[in-house]
Specification:
The chain has 686 residues and is an alpha/beta fold. Helices cover 55% and strands 7% of the residues. The longest helix is centred in the N-terminal third of the chain and has 29 residues, at 2-30. It is built from 29 helices and eleven strands.
Length: 686
């Protein structure tokens, strides 16, 4: 910790000295040593350029490793707030009603000697999971269960409950989907990457939290890493267990929570290389009597008693029948209740002969029922929602390795997105050739033309570097997560930026937009040019300033996954507004439209270099036009409100992996709503 503080002081000192040197050189030039700046306009340009360098350094300071170390407790508290805002246990996950599914679990003995101590009297319920975990030593827990048993629900509930009453010094639980863990990536680096991407932390602060043992990784989806048939010794799941075995804090095993399907984990345990020093809990199946209690207390069953009575009677009469086995997990039970609560006839499930047939009928009604539950007159038709979700499910399936997270900034880098990358590369090449042709072929080939051409080549190289698998960023991605325009988070961002230790950075960063606005609007007597046409070009400066502040002080988790494309659109507006105004001014003074093309090409290359991730995402949307909605993030947020999509940190996931796989297999809806056999007017109501 002491070394981190010293490194932070050295970096801060170097930053201050470098900034002062830039300002001194600029002032020396402005004051006229040698040729100097002869007039006020030249001096204003030089000063503005110097202040621009200073502002850029300040706004990028947060995302670099040169951030001074902070107190670990403060960083942990900040991360806990971000996680709490992102991982609120949605009511839709546990049933979207006042009556949730009762999830219980049982501690299981390990097949090896290196296991953690278990609580003497475990609670064995969802509400008592945190207390049971605190009684485990070392604090390592594996949550197992059948597909759909509620492993992710239990993990989310654990994160929410532990964050709600976390003691000082305890690590912050963070839910992390395992789907994107690469074989060559260290476990520590992978967690740090997620803290930066999903929760808006800086790389330095995330690394400091990991090295201090203040992060409790809650790893979800070990069973979703490998395709069927992969040998266990060569599987990614085994690699995860090996990494967790070596994950230590000092001489003690570091805390961790892991979820996995029961059959796979037992195979991994039998392989001889299980995760050591961990306790294991097994989620109990939902018994028929619990399914009857849950369904009978639902609003739909209360108001449609006659429709639901045959289903409840079947569960009571055959507690181990096909229907009872199909509804033995919380996920399927909630999906069935959602599918048949308001519309459709639940008695049609009695005709099913297999569990797969029950699942197909439930899922066929699940999406349409969810759509009508969120909107009486839905914004999108159920058929269109199904087709769009099918395309997104295929997008994830094409990535292989059990991909289950939809990360909008990375969709254009997925294996099946080659046409999108080709379109982006062709666009950058066309803009580069157009600009070089204008300045070198048709130009005078003077010093200015060669300078602009060199600038264009550098921008083109930077733009093409975004095509790398790991990407490339001139601007930190965490600085581009902006809330909705009417969101109260803007007020939170302004208050946070203008108070505390952020206030000096905000004041210094505000110098540049104030100077430019003054230069544009002020009359000649006060040092300005009084050009209202020029003033239009700089109007986005205050908006840019507010947006940069918001991107620096708000966590990505607080904004949500849709904040990244919103930030990209904002950055494009800031970059292109001056270009449009200059184009209009050029046309007004008599320039030909073809003479303005190089200007537009230069701004296009600048946009690709600065926000290449957003440009790649736009190319992906253009390639998949009509296959997915153009405003994809808005559609996914709407699906989250409908209960079809869930949000984990800064990424989207389907409600359940089983639902994702079902959508990938069914390109069109299977059935239309079914009505009860009797007249709904005769249904008794309480």
């Amino acid at each position: 910790m002491k070394g981190n503080r010293q490194a932070g002081r050295r970096a801060r000192t170097a930053f201050i000295l470098g900034t002062c040197a830039v300002l001194v050189l600029c002032l020396t030039y402005v004051l006229g040593f040698g040729e100097g700046a002869k007039n006020l306009a030249d001096r204003a340009v030089v000063v503005s350029a110097a202040l621009g360098v200073l502002t850029l350094a300040l706004t990028s300071w947060r995302g670099t490793g040169a951030v001074p170390a902070e107190d670990g407790a403060v960083l942990a508290g900040r991360l806990a707030q971000a996680v709490t805002g992102a991982e609120l246990l949605s009511r839709r996950v546990i049933g979207d009603d006042r009556i949730p599914v009762r999830v219980s679990f049982t501690f299981r003995a390990s097949s090896h000697a290196r296991s953690a101590t278990r609580p003497l009297v475990p609670n064995g319920t969802l509400d008592g999971l945190v207390a049971d975990y605190r009684a485990v030593h070392p604090r390592r827990l594996v949550i197992t269960g059948q597909p759909g048993a509620g492993k992710s629900v239990l993990a989310r509930a654990f994160v929410a409950e532990l964050n709600g009453n976390r003691a000082e010094g305890e690590p912050v639980p963070v839910l992390l989907p395992l789907g994107d863990w690469g074989r060559q990536e260290l476990f520590r680096d992978w967690v740090v990457r997620h803290l930066v991407r999903d929760y808006g932390s800086t790389s330095a602060h995330a690394a400091q939290l990991m090295d201090s043992g203040l992060v409790l990784p809650v790893l979800d989806g070990l069973d979703e890493l490998d395709e069927p048939g992969v040998p266990i010794p060569e599987s990614r799941a085994q690699q995860v267990l090996d990494a967790l075995t070596g994950y230590q804090r000092g001489l003690e095993p570091a805390p961790v929570v892991l979820t996995c399907r029961t059959d796979l984990y037992e195979v991994l345990e039998a392989s001889g290389r299980p995760v050591l020093d961990a306790a294991r809990v097994e989620i109990d199946p939902v018994e028929a009597q619990e399914a009857v209690r849950f369904l009978a207390m639902r609003q739909g069953a209360v108001h449609r008693e006659e429709d639901w009575r045959p289903v409840l009677d079947e569960l009571r009469a055959h507690p181990h029948g096909v229907l009872a086995r199909s509804l033995s997990t919380p996920w399927r039970l909630v999906a069935m209740a959602t599918a048949y609560e308001r519309v459709n006839d639940p008695a049609e499930l009695l005709e099913a002969r297999t569990e797969q047939e029950v699942t197909d009928r439930v899922f066929a009604h699940f999406a349409p029922a969810s759509v009508h539950a969120v909107d009486e007159e839905p914004r999108h038709s159920p058929e269109r929602v199904h087709v769009w979700l099918h395309r997104l499910a295929l997008q994830l399936e094409s990535q292989g390795n059990g991909a289950s997270t939809l990360v909008l900034p990375d969709v254009a880098r997925s294996p099946g997105a080659l046409p999108s990358r080709m379109l982006y590369a062709a666009t950058v090449g066309l803009l580069t050739l157009l600009t070089l042709w204008a300045f070198l072929v048709n130009g005078t080939r003077g010093g200015g033309e060669w300078g602009v051409s060199l600038f264009v080549v550098v921008m083109a190289v930077l733009a093409l570097m975004h095509l790398r698998p790991c990407g490339f960023r001139l601007v930190e991605r965490s600085d581009m997560w902006l809330p909705p325009w009417r969101s109260p988070l803007w007020a939170v961002a302004a208050k946070t930026a203008l108070t505390g230790r952020n206030c000096w950075g905000a004041l210094v960063a505000a110098i540049l937009p104030v100077m430019i606005l003054w230069r544009s609007w002020a009359p000649d007597q006060l040092g300005g040019v009084g050009d209202w046409a020029l003033a239009l070009a700089v109007l986005p400066m205050p908006t840019q300033f507010v947006g940069l502040l918001a991107g620096n002080v708000l966590d990505a988790a607080a904004v949500g996954p849709s904040g990244w494309p919103r930030g990209g659109a904002f950055a494009a507006l800031v970059l292109w507004w001056p270009a449009v105004v200059l184009l209009a001014m050029g046309l007004r003074v008599g320039l030909e439209p073809t003479d303005c093309l190089p200007l537009l090409a230069v701004f296009g290359l600048l946009s690709c270099a600065v926000i290449g991730d957003a440009a790649l995402y736009l190319c992906w949307l253009l390639v998949h036009f009509r296959r997915v909605p153009f405003r994809l993030s808005r559609f996914l947020d709407w699906c989250h409100a409908a209960g079809l999509i869930r949000i984990t940190g800064g990424v989207y996931q389907f409600r359940h992996r089983e639902f994702q796989e079902w959508l990938a297999r069914h390109p069109v809806p299977l059935t239309r709503p079914t009505e009860p056999a009797h007249d709904s007017a005769t249904v008794r109501t309480p």
